[in-house]
C-alpha cells in the first residue's frame, strides 16, 4: 500500500497547485468544493463544467472514485454521461473544473496523457481499427509499452522483436480470457456487434490500465450477452485489479456490477452514493427511473 | 478515409506460402529477365515501372496506411532527385548510394514540413494543402539555378551509376540498379507495415480518437508517415531521374506526375504494398501494350493521333471498370482470384 500513500501526497500537492488556476478558467462565482474522498481516491473531479457553444453539457460535476471500485454513471439520454467520460480521458477540455487522477492534474491534457497516466477506455459507438485483425487491434492496445524506434522495428532488432512478442503474448492471453481465441485472425469489421464490443474491451485491457472507462459496454446486447460481459468485467477486475467507471442503461446490470453510482440529469449531478442509497433517492426516481421505466 | 478494410492477412496458409510468389518473382527479375530482356524492355518499360512502383509504395504508406491524402508526390520525387544530384555533385567522392540516401533524407525533411498541415487538416482539405508542396518545389527548382548547377532551365544530368567500382551505366545495368534499390526499400516498407509503427498508421487512419486514447501520438504518427513516405518517394524520384530519364527538368515532376502516382495507389489498392506494383504495371505497361496492339491492328486504317486518343479512352474506361469490379483495387482483385483458385 506504499503506492496509495504516495498518491495521497501527490493528490494533496496537485490540489494545492490548483490554487493557481488561470483567471480565464475561473468561474465568476467560486463553487463550494464537492465531496472528496480523503482516503483512497484514484480519480477526483472537481467543479467540471463543459459547454458546446451555448449548450451546457455538464454543470459543476464533482465526484471521486475509490481505488478498486466500480462506479456506474447513469442518467437519461443526453444527460452528459459520455461527455463526462470524454472529460475524464482528456478528449474534451472542460471550461472549468479539474480532473485529478492518481494525484496528477489531467485537465485538458489530452487523451494521450490520460492513457500514459493509466486510463483506458471503450467507446459508445465501437471504435475499433477496421483495417486490422482482431489480434492486431488488441496488440495495438499495448502501444505504450513499445520503446523500439523506426529502424529497430524495420530491421527487426532484438528490442523490437522482444516487444512485439510480448505484446502478442499479452494479446493471446486476453483473447483467451475473453473467449475470442477463435477469431484472432479475423477482420474485426466482419465480426458481430457483441464480439466487437468484447474485442474493444480486450484492447483496453491490453494497456493494463489503472482506470478503465466503459461507455455503454452492453448497449444492444441480449440478456445472455450482457451476463457474459458482466462476468468478464468482474473477472477482469479480479484479475487485473483496476478501477472501473462505466456508463450503462440497464439498471439490473448497474445494480449488479457497481459499488458506487453517480446519477446525471441535464448535465447535473443529482445523486452520488451506494446503489442502495441511490435507488431510494426520490430525485433519482423522479428524473430517471420514474421517467424512463 | 475511415471505412477502409483493406489489409488482407492471409488465412490458413503457412507464412512461407504467402511469400513464395514474391520469391519467385524476385528470382525471375534477377535471374531471368536480365538475360532475356532487350534494351526497349529495360529502358522504356521496366525501369520506369520500377521507379513509379517505388513511388507508389512510398505514397501508399502515407495515404493507404496512414490515411493522409497527398498530391505532392512529384514534388517529393523532385526533391529526392535534385538533392541527390547536388550531394553527389558537391561532395567529392560521395558514393552513389549515399547520395541517393541523402536525397531521400532531404525529401523526408521537406515532406515533414509539408506534412505539418495534416495536424489540423483532413481529407480533401489536406490534399489541397499538399498542392503547396507541388507548386513551391517546382517553382524553387526553376527559379534558383543553383539547384541545377547553373543550368538556366533547371535541367540536371544523371551522375554515372557506379557502385563499388561496378558500372551500372547500361540498359540492363540501370534495370538491375533500380531493381536492387526498389527491392530493398520495398522490403523495408513491408516490414514497417507489419510493425507496431505500421499498426499505429492504420490506427490513426481508422480511428484517431481511439488511437490517442491508447496513448498513440497522432501528431508523431502523421509526421512520421510523411517523413518515411517522402523518403521513399524521394529515392524513387532519384531513380526516375538517374536511371530512367537521365536528363530531367523540374517540369518533369509536375502535378500530372503526382496524380499518376495517386492513381497507381488507388488502382493498385490502398494499404497494399503489392498494389503499388500492380497499379504501376497497369499505368505504365498497359498503355504501351495497348498502343502497340492498336498500331498493329488498326495502324493502317487510322492515323497515330486518333489511335493515341482512343487508347486513352480505353485506359480510362478500364480504370472505371476495374474500380467498379473491385473498389479496393487490383490487389484485392488478385487476392480474390487466387483464393478462388485455391479453394
TrEMBL record, chain B:
The question of whether Chaperone is a record keyword is answered with no
UniProt-listed InterPro entries: ABC_transp_permease, LivM-like
Tell where it localizes.
Cell membrane
Keyword annotations of the record: Cell membrane, Membrane, Transmembrane, Transmembrane helix
Keyword Kinase listed? The answer is no
Record membrane topology: Multi-pass membrane protein
Top-rank taxon: Bacteria
Q: Report a single Gene Ontology molecular function.
A: branched-chain amino acid transmembrane transporter activity
Q: Where are the transmembrane segments?
A: 12-34, 40-62, 94-116, 123-141, 172-190, 223-245, 257-273, 313-335
One CC-aspect GO term: plasma membrane
Q: Which PANTHER family match?
A: ABC TRANSPORTER PERMEASE PROTEIN, HIGH-AFFINITY BRANCHED-CHAIN AMINO ACID TRANSPORT SYSTEM PERMEASE
In Swiss-Prot or TrEMBL terms, this protein is called: Branched-chain amino acid ABC transporter permease
Task: Please report the organism this UniProt entry assigns to the protein.
Answer: Zavarzinia aquatilis
Amino acid at each position: 500500500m506504499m503506492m496509495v500513500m504516495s498518491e495521497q501526497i501527490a493528490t494533496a500537492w496537485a490540489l494545492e497547485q490548483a490554487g493557481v488556476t488561470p483567471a480565464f478558467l475561473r468561474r465568476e462565482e467560486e463553487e463550494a468544493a464537492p465531496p472528496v474522498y480523503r482516503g483512497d481516491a484514484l480519480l477526483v473531479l472537481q467543479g467540471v463544467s463543459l459547454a458546446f457553444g451555448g449548450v451546457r453539457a455538464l454543470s459543476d460535476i464533482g465526484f471521486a472514485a475509490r481505488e478498486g471500485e466500480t462506479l456506474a454513471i447513469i442518467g437519461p439520454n443526453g444527460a452528459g454521461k459520455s461527455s463526462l467520460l470524454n472529460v475524464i480521458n482528456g478528449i474534451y477540455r472542460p471550461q472549468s473544473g479539474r480532473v485529478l487522477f492518481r494525484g496528477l492534474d489531467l485537465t485538458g491534457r489530452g487523451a494521450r496523457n490520460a492513457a500514459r497516466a493509466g486510463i483506458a477506455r471503450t467507446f459508445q459507438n465501437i471504435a475499433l481499427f477496421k483495417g486490422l485483425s482482431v489480434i492486431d487491434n488488441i496488440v495495438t492496445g499495448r502501444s505504450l509499452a513499445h520503446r523500439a524506434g523506426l529502424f529497430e522495428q524495420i530491421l527487426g532488432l532484438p528490442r523490437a522483436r522482444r516487444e512485439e512478442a510480448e505484446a502478442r503474448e499479452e494479446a493471446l492471453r486476453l483473447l483467451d480470457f475473453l473467449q475470442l481465441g477463435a477469431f484472432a485472425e479475423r477482420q474485426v469489421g466482419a465480426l458481430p456487434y457483441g464480439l466487437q464490443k468484447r474485442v474493444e474491451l480486450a484492447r483496453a485491457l491490453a494497456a493494463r490500465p489503472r482506470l478503465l472507462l466503459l461507455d455503454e459496454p452492453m448497449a444492444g446486447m441480449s440478456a445472455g450477452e450482457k451476463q457474459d460481459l458482466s462476468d468478464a468485467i468482474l473477472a477482469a477486475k479480479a484479475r487485473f485489479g483496476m478501477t472501473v467507471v462505466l456508463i450503462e442503461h440497464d439498471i439490473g446490470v448497474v445494480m449488479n456490477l457497481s459499488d458506487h453510482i453517480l446519477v446525471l440529469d441535464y448535465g447535473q449531478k443529482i445523486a452520488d452514493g451506494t446503489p442502495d442509497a441511490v435507488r431510494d433517492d426520490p430525485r433519482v426516481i423522479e428524473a430517471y427511473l420514474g421517467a424512463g421505466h | 478515409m475511415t471505412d477502409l478494410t483493406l489489409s488482407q492477412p492471409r488465412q490458413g496458409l503457412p507464412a512461407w506460402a504467402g511469400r513464395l510468389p514474391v520469391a519467385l518473382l524476385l528470382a525471375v527479375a534477377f535471374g531471368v529477365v536480365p538475360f532475356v530482356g532487350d534494351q526497349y524492355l529495360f529502358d522504356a518499360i521496366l525501369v520506369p515501372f520500377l521507379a513509379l512502383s517505388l513511388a507508389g509504395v512510398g505514397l501508399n504508406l502515407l495515404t493507404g496506411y496512414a490515411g493522409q491524402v497527398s498530391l505532392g508526390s512529384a514534388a517529393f520525387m523532385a526533391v529526392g532527385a535534385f538533392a541527390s544530384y547536388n550531394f553527389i555533385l558537391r561532395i567529392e567522392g560521395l558514393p552513389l548510394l549515399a547520395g541517393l540516401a541523402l536525397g531521400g533524407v532531404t525529401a523526408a525533411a521537406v515532406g515533414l514540413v509539408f506534412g505539418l498541415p495534416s495536424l489540423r487538416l483532413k481529407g480533401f482539405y489536406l490534399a489541397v494543402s499538399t498542392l503547396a508542396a507541388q507548386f513551391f518545389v517546382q517553382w524553387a527548382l526553376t527559379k534558383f539555378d543553383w539547384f541545377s548547377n547553373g543550368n538556366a532551365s533547371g535541367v540536371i544530368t544523371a551522375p554515372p551509376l557506379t557502385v563499388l567500382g561496378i558500372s551500372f551505366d547500361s540498359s540492363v545495368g540501370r534495370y538491375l540498379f533500380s531493381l536492387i534499390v526498389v527491392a530493398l526499400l520495398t522490403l523495408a516498407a513491408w516490414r514497417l507495415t507489419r510493425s507496431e509503427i505500421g499498426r499505429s498508421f492504420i490506427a490513426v487512419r481508422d480511428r484517431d480518437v481511439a488511437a490517442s486514447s491508447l496513448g498513440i501520438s497522432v501528431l508523431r504518427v502523421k509526421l512520421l508517415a510523411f517523413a518515411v513516405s517522402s523518403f521513399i518517394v524521394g529515392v524513387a524520384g532519384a531513380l526516375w531521374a538517374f536511371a530512367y530519364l537521365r536528363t530531367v527538368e523540374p517540369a518533369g515532376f509536375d502535378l500530372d506526375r503526382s496524380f499518376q502516382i495517386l492513381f497507381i495507389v488507388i488502382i493498385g489498392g490502398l494499404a497494399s504494398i503489392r498494389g503499388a506494383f500492380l497499379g504501376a504495371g497497369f499505368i505504365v505497361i498497359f498503355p504501351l501494350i495497348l498502343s502497340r496492339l492498336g498500331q498493329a491492328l488498326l495502324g493502317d486504317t487510322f492515323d497515330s493521333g486518333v489511335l493515341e486518343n482512343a487508347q486513352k479512352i480505353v485506359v480510362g474506361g478500364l480504370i472505371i471498370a476495374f474500380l467498379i469490379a473491385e473498389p479496393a483495387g487490383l490487389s484485392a482483385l488478385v487476392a480474390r482470384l487466387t483464393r478462388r483458385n485455391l479453394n
